[in-house]
Design brief:
The structure is a homodimer. With about 160 residues, the first copy, chain A, is of the alpha+beta class. Chain A has helices at about 10-20, 25-40, 45-55, 60-75, 145-155, and strands spanning about 40-45, 75-80, 85-90, 95-100, 105-110, 130-145. Strand 6 (about 130-145) of chain A pairs antiparallel with strand 6 of chain B. Chain B binds a DNA duplex (30 and 30 nucleotides) through helix 4.
DNA sequence: CACTAATTGCGAGCTAGTCAAAATAAGTGC
DNA sequence: GCACTTATTTTGACTAGCTCGCAATTAGTG
């Protein structure tokens, strides 16, 4: 079936996904996808800048539209850390989480500890109507090794 | 020690906390705290409206300043659900989480499942510098009972 | 009760994102 | 390969939510 696509040709895989979803395959969409794939956890602004290197005429609004649409389709994942514009990544469907360094802002992916999402079973209080949970977005906040080291040097 | 403060006189407790933190006890701060306490998960706008009932002259900017400062002090907790302005609550320090209904936007508190935060121990990939984690903010996204029921009625 | 630094109010300004309508281009059939 | 249809992109104006600097006010201290 895919004997000639052993190497991950993301672009054609994306094209297929787009078509399957009833969307047209435009250079704008591919440029946005490629930009995010190359630099995960990018803001709409970063993505615009990156994508423009391949597609100089690309407009900011197109990026917003594409991001919104592809996120809805599930081809992108969007997450919004505090005090930051929304970030996007192409890694979807694996329910992975994020760790953000409150000092320098660095963001790392964290695999969902176990194969099955461990946090999908909240503990409801007696007076609450439980919800049917679909996603558990976990945002770890801490300090990364670099900042810890820098802090030690600075005396404190 | 507290034999005369059996009833939770939040206002005086807040005053004490403020003084301890080196802040002055102003009616603006107390009005904001009272508003949030009465209506947890409020936006800055809601808080302004509520607080103005007690303090008609209160300005929006003061609310923002107070919210930012008190959040930094740890007297308020701030969280930013997707597609929503920041929300505030007075319940701090217990590492509880939030569940949001993606349909109607309703938000519920969810106690941290176990006494010890279950999610404070992420699983790091081999090539990653682990961070020193301090908080794990969990945002459950799902559909609440009401919306589920409404959906069933609507045919789908 | 006066003093002084902290707090609040006011206005301008900024960033991230949205909306409507016209211009463009992807996919379709001939 | 060409014309057609309609999704997509662009253009440009606009909004929400929040921040900044400076002047006016006020809480807390002695």
């Amino acid at each position: 079936m895919s004997q000639f696509t052993a190497l991950p040709d993301r672009a054609s895989a994306w094209s297929e996904q787009l078509r399957t979803a009833g969307r047209r395959v435009t250079k704008q969409r591919l440029a946005v996808l490629a930009a995010i794939d190359a630099h995960p956890h990018s803001t709409a602004d970063n993505i615009l800048e990156l994508a423009r290197r391949e597609l100089p005429g690309l407009s900011a609004q197109s990026v917003y539209v594409v991001l919104g649409d592809l996120t809805e389709l599930g081809m992108l994942r969007r997450f919004e850390p505090p005090h930051s514009p929304a970030l996007y990544e192409t890694r979807t469907g694996d329910n992975h989480h994020h760790a953000i360094c409150t000092r320098c802002g660095r963001i790392e992916d964290v695999d969902c500890a176990v194969g099955h999402a461990p946090c999908l079973h909240p503990h409801w209080n007696d007076d609450q109507q439980p919800m049917s949970i679909q996603i558990a977005d976990v945002l770890y906040q801490g300090i990364c090794q670099d900042c810890l080291a820098a802090e030690r040097q600075d005396g404190d």
